[in-house]
Amino acid sequence: MLDFPRLLLLLLAACQALAQRLPSSFPHNYTGIPKGDYSPAWQNYFEVTHPLPNVTKPIARNFAGNIGVNRVGHPNNTLWFWAFEKEEGSITVGAGERENEPWLIWLNGGPGSSSLVGLMTENGPLQVTGDYSIVENEFSWNKLADAFWVDQPVGTGFSTSDAAGYVDSEDQLGQDFVEFLTNLVKVFPSLATRPFYLTGESYAGTFIPYITKAIFSTPKPPVNLRKISIGDGTIGGFALYEELSTVITLETYPEIIGFDPDVFQYFKEQEHLCGYDTNLTYPQHGIIPTITDPFTTARLFSNSEVLPRIPKKRSLSRRTISSARSSLSSRDLDDRAVEMEERRALLKRNLIGRPNGTLDPTYGCFLWEEMTDYAQNFSFPWTVGEFDAYDIPDALLPEVPSDPSVFLNDNRTRAALHAPIKEWVEIFGNPFGNSTHEGPGTNPFGDPSVEPMAFMTELATNASERGVHIIIYEGNDDSLVAHRGLQVVIQNITFGGRFAGIVHQERNLTYALFQNAGHFVPRSVPEAAFVFLREFILGSNATGFVDGTHVVGGEDSILAEDVMPGTTAIFYGHGTTASSLIIPSETLASWSSFLATATATAL
Question: Which range is the signal sequence, renumbered to this chain (predicted)?
Fold first, then answer.
């Protein structure tokens, strides 16, 4: 029988212990979301002191919880953070102390993606493995600076929102973030004057410019912003980051089309008909013209199929070998391979036999979608796996799981991290409080705001005046937000100069292209990302800086053009039991010879 009097006493003792950790201004109707006047007295509450499940080794002192965004009429609108110190006491020092020591915030994209995905699969001190265990990350970014991972906009991850309180624009998102920072530095006063670095990836390429604009527009900014850093970011519009780079992707990974020159020429012609064959000249002569909106050229795809998720096999013809392929005999497999080649040949005749100067009526200018469909239906090993939009060499099916949801939805974890009572999900579906829709001029995520590229020249000018540096980097293996699109963004903010290999710097702009990295650069190449953080984001390494005709560190003539060759291995199979397709050197040499004549326009 349960001892109810004893349980009641234990519960009362727990409540008294909690009350001792809360500042006197904490309201009595505590529901898991702190409200009231923020001050350093809140540090004791936010400190994570209870053990985390499956975390068996000591970790840096850390703090977590929700902080309000001061939105009038929406008292439950908060952003949730998890912060890790670089050194014992470095976050909690007093105002004016350690004023030369940097601190950073990391944002994931989505939109609606929790930044805990970044913390636990990319650049945080705790990493979730394929068997859901938690291990230490030796390249965690908090080893170089006090680091905060923040769930935003409101409603994302462990952040909260009233039912009618979701952001209605990127400007509202930026204002919420400034108010969050205003309250955050009241809790941790030294952060107000220390150098602040705002970093993130993917759709954070939209968030960060708007947040930066909001900081610049604030008469007395709450933080001392020094640099913004965007990885594989959506700074331009949908067509720019998803469609425009398709041919560059095929030049980087011709395996996608089986090294077929005719199919390459087909995509090159479609690129030209869509106006995606932009010629980047350095220094540039005016800005790049408006990019063709693919929604004006075809209505093939439902909204869910153009969102940047792992693409599904759509029927250019019938599906290829099914998931039951393992039960087929070798003769069956041989027969299916012959059938597949026959269908590929038929499709190829239809592609290259179309009259010159005509756009494909089915795909229109959805070139990326057509490319991935081709790969999954006709190009081994994607015919027996999946096309990973974010990491081309990864054709594994299924993927090795990298899922922090079990850990984060454990009640012990939520209690230790002062998280609200809500289910944590990797991506919150409608962060703008609306339903997504498709059509000309629309954003497939329901984001009503103009893409940051529209005001990047003004933002770059204001950043330069304030001594704020802009850093843009890309993973060479990312097909979805591929590097050509961001090079167009750079072109359009009037920062010229010759392509200087893997790192290019001019005025207050740095551009870097990571080899052997996909969309999630710190996950693909954690050590390289760690060094880049140390040397270029937090540091001032001058490699790649263009000073007139001189480039610091020199130039690599192999990288003087627009394409960095991809890796020669494509991985496929089931999870960790992977095989690899190695491309023969003769095939690569033959393709290089073909490209020398097929790509007539050199930078």
Answer: 1-19
